[in-house]
Design goal:
Blueprint: H1 2-21, H2 28-38, E1 47-51, E2 59-63
Length: 71
């Protein structure tokens, strides 16, 4: 998972500047998958909740994958 975070951070830090330098990439066909990847795994985009069957107190939420070409 750490490699994916590094990849995501590169896009967070440089995507807008990249589009300014290379305007041919400032199109919906590129923007949509990038934005999808940036939201991947975030609970706001949906998640599954798992509860410990032994104690019932430990709850984990796992965000859904975006299933984009980046994942």
């Amino acid at each position: 998972m750490q490699d994916k975070d590094v990849f995501r951070n590169i896009f967070v830090d440089h995507w807008d500047q990249f589009k300014e330098e290379y305007p041919t990439y400032d199109k919906p066909q590129y923007e949509a998958p990038v934005q999808k990847m940036l939201g991947c795994g975030k609970e706001s985009n949906g998640y599954s909740e798992y509860i410990c069957i032994n104690c019932g107190r430990d709850i984990r939420r796992i965000g859904f994958s975006c299933k984009s070409c980046f994942c």
